[in-house]
Specification:
The chain has 812 residues and is mainly beta. Helices cover 3% and strands 49% of the residues.
């Protein structure tokens, strides 16, 4: 199935889908986060879970308005006993889905039985399409998540309808979003994006997170956790209940988590606040406010290459002791820090104008500020500000150890507005517009370090900075990007033959304009890039009866070029350009799906066959520079073909048991040879990086209302870390277990509970993911006959050792 043929067919025959009610090397600049293959730092929530008490007919419902505030969402607290919310199929790892596309959902039933500190990546690890490399056991760090071989920057991420991806490069940081106690559900659409979803980095699909609604009754939840590596956590959630007859209810939650790094020196500390308000009107309209705030400072882990892994294993890390103001001193762990603060707010509104006409409006705001840091020795003999040779103010010294943060401050604000018209039972016609304006300022100063102790004066990199002798800030990069997005969309959901046939078509036109301003001397001051993308979609399903459904879907998605592709980068030690910016092409994917679902009294299951054709595949590359400072590039890997199948099976409660089984077969190949200098690297036909051919998972949940047990095992096949397939992560197995007991109410305490969560019960030590990939780890002869030297050594995530956390919790 060729890309051009499929593209022509979709352009001619598809009209898109409004599936509501579901969920050239670029830059060389330091990254904000080190534990993500990216340069720097967006999900339509799914519908409320279908009750599991009886079989549900697989008839696709008309889109539900504002599902993040749906009245049907259960209002139970995480520590309650068995209920509709805690009786989901497969222990909460599956949900009955009806839309004509692949959807994989994890509900709060499963989430509540994990360690409460986990982040959303860890929550999603058992999904068939997902491969997660965890950086730590308790969710304080972002690891690497891949969906059918695509990384997080190629997946759109939403919280209650607000985008979370970094507007510059599309990256997503799972540890900064939402606490698990407030996470109602997570839905992944691998390969498809709703036409009204406000995302521009979603060539591989969409992930939707829903914050739990406040309860109609006054009360709350509190818990405290103690875990391995001196990890300590406190959490408190307060629900106002219905405030008089106003139709208003709200909740506020606070958590604090702190723990030591599991290998090497350092720690992580996190303060997080969640708030949600809902206002219901008598005619069915409703509005509200969702806010999530996070303030966190982490000491980094060093990701080893293969040689370091073989020689030092889990001992590989930054230095615990300061070695002095020299190149060895740059490895001191106090110089490798990640402070970041961010807040997101969204106001989702559903207005009933007439019984046939409704309006959906979602206004959002996102702000983030912080950095990822490294260190280097600056020297007056080779100091350049852009192309200008400069003298540095080093208090009379010729050289000094300097702190080198990669700072950014980002503002995003936007609005998604749509009208839904239902002229009759068979149609739901939608028309809408998404607009966003984003301001992203990125700069890399050099900070003052105490030369005796090696401790930076200011880890945020905003004060105590090194300047030139004339007083100018000394920076290795300094640029501002302004991004405007306009997206128009139209769709129609049609139902025939007593709702057995469901056809969803639609079309959206995304228009992304970037304006780049580079303040570094000797660079091109301004570059602009306008990216228009027509994106048709279609989905068709047929319900044989309430148990059997088949569907077929065609989707087109894209990822806008990274903002850094427009930036010239000049070395601060040579004054020479190491990258010249220029226009870059967007990543474009065409995806087809064929699926079958079964919804029985006991067993539910799904199977989805998929095929992708990609052009201008954008790969986020992370690598270490001098002083183990982290740098990033965006690599255009050309074309790619990805094919495979996902399978999920789970049961409803049977003698208190709910097993879950999942499997994925994935065949992802590179379609072309990659240019290296004047030759071509023979990569055509090679397996794409981070794309294990097989994955399989097994889960088991037992819950009798008092005692519960939840265990999962996942197998991940071999995955390559170079385009030439000459370095790889071997196959491995992960495991985790949770068990707990709910006591009877006592005084003000409702369903007090004690639970124990454990991961890596065998204590196995292995590499569990690709941190930074390379073109080729060994020298290879090019297509034109020249020897192409090794591009470098890939680096890897390491699987955390045995870890345990005990949590005491109660409702009140």
């Amino acid at each position: 199935m060729s890309s051009s043929f499929t593209h022509r067919c979709l352009k001619m025959l598809l009209a898109g889908t409004a599936l509501a009610g579901s969920v050239q090397v670029s830059t060389a600049a330091p990254t904000r986060h080190k534990h993500h293959a990216s340069t720097h730092r967006t999900a339509k929530p799914s519908t409320a879970p279908v009750p599991a008490a009886a079989p549900v007919a697989m008839m696709a419902p008309r889109p539900a308005p504002a599902p993040v505030m749906a009245r049907s969402q259960p209002e139970e607290i995480a520590v309650t006993g068995r209920s509709q919310r805690t009786r989901q199929p497969g222990g909460g790892l599956m949900r009955v889905e009806v839309e004509p596309k692949a959807i994989q959902t994890v509900t709060h039933d499963f989430i509540a039985k994990l360690a409460p500190s986990v982040n959303v990546q860890q929550v999603m690890a058992m999904m068939p399409s997902v491969n997660v490399a965890q950086a730590d056991p308790f969710g304080l760090y972002t690891g690497q998540l891949n969906v059918r071989g695509f990384d997080t920057s190629e997946v759109g991420w939403l919280l209650d309808g607000a985008p979370l991806n970094d507007i510059g490069g599309g990256q997503f940081y799972a540890n900064e979003v939402l606490e698990s106690e407030n996470l109602e559900s997570v839905s992944l659409q691998p390969g498809s994006v709703d036409i009204n979803s406000p995302v521009i980095s979603a060539s591989a699909g969409l992930t939707a997170m829903t914050m739990s609604n406040p309860s109609h009754h006054f009360g709350g939840v509190m818990d405290v956790s103690f875990g391995s590596f001196d990890t300590f956590r406190q959490f408190l959630r307060l629900n106002s209940g219905d405030i008089g007859n106003s139709g208003v209810r709200a909740m506020f939650a606070f958590s604090h988590t702190k723990g030591n790094n599991w290998r090497g020196p350092g720690q992580a500390e996190k303060y997080h606040y969640d708030f949600k308000l809902v206002k219901d009107f008598r005619n069915g309209s409703h509005t509200g406010l969702t806010v999530a705030y996070n303030n966190q400072t982490n000491d980094f882990y060093l990701a080893p290459n293969l040689s370091q892994w073989r020689n030092a294993g889990y001992s590989t890390n930054y230095a615990a002791d300061y070695a002095g103001p020299n190149s060895a001193g740059t490895n001191y762990y106090r110089l490798h820090v990640n402070p970041f603060e961010n807040v997101i707010a969204v106001i989702p509104t559903h207005v009933v104008i007439t019984p046939k006409l409704t309006l959906e409006d979602s206004v959002y705001f996102w702000h983030g500020i912080g950095n990822g840091t490294g260190a280097s020795v600056v020297n007056n003999s080779n100091a350049y500000l852009g192309t200008q040779k400069v003298a540095l103010a080093l208090n009379g010294a010729q050289s000094a150890l300097a702190f080198s943060p990669s700072n950014q401050e980002q503002f995003r604000t936007g609005n998604t507005l749509s009208l839904h018209y239902r002229p009759d039972h068979h149609h739901d016609i939608s028309l809408g517009w998404w607009y966003e304006y984003a301001n992203l300022y990125q700069y890399s100063p050099y900070g003052v370090v105490n030369q005796q102790t090696g401790i930076p004066n200011n880890v945020w990199g905003t004060t105590d900075l090194i300047t030139t002798s004339s007083g100018q800030p000394y920076r290795s990069r300094d640029f501002l990007s302004l991004t405007q997005v306009n997206m128009l969309f139209i769709g129609d959901t049609m139902k025939y033959f007593n709702d057995r046939l469901n056809i969803v078509v639609g079309f959206k036109e995304a228009m992304v304009t970037r304006r780049m301003y580079n303040y570094t001397p000797g660079t091109q001051y301004n570059r602009n890039l306008h990216t228009p993308e027509p994106l048709p979609q279609v989905g068709i399903s047929w319900n044989f009866n309430k148990r059997h459904q088949i569907y077929i879907a065609g989707n087109t998605n894209f990822k806008a070029p990274a903002n850094t592709s427009l930036v010239d980068y000049i070395s601060p030690t040579t004054g020479k350009a190491s990258q010249l910016g220029g226009p870059s092409a967007p990543e474009y994917s065409i995806e087809e799906e064929l699926g079958y679902r079964y919804n029985g009294d006991l067993l539910i299951g799904s199977i989805s066959f998929f095929n992708y054709n990609l052009t201008n595949r954008q790969q986020s590359l992370t690598y270490y520079g001098p002083g183990n400072a982290v740098y990033s590039q965006t690599v255009n890997a050309g074309g790619q073909t990805t094919r495979g199948v996902d399978i999920q099976l789970g049961t409803r409660p049977w003698h208190h048991l709910r097993p879950y089984v999942t499997f994925e077969y994935l065949h992802a190949t590179i379609d072309n040879n990659l240019r290296v200098g004047n030759d071509l690297l023979p990569t055509k036909g090679k397996i794409a990086i981070r794309s294990p051919q097989e994955q399989a998972g097994l889960g088991l949940d037992y819950d009798d209302g008092s005692f519960w047990f939840s265990g999962q095992i996942k197998y991940v096949g071999k995955q390559y870390s170079t385009f030439m397939n000459d370095n790889s992560v071997p196959q491995y197995i992960t495991n985790q277990v949770g068990l707990g007991y709910r006591f009877k109410n006592a005084g003000f305490m409702k369903s007090p509970q004690i639970q124990l969560n454990m991961t890596n019960l065998t204590g196995a030590k292995f590499r569990n993911g690709v941190y930074g990939f390379q073109n080729n780890a060994n020298a290879v002869r090019g297509v034109y006959g020249t020897m192409i030297a090794a591009s470098g050594s890939p680096s890897y995530y390491l699987n955390p050792p045995f870890s345990a956390m005990v949590t005491l919790s109660t409702g009140f």
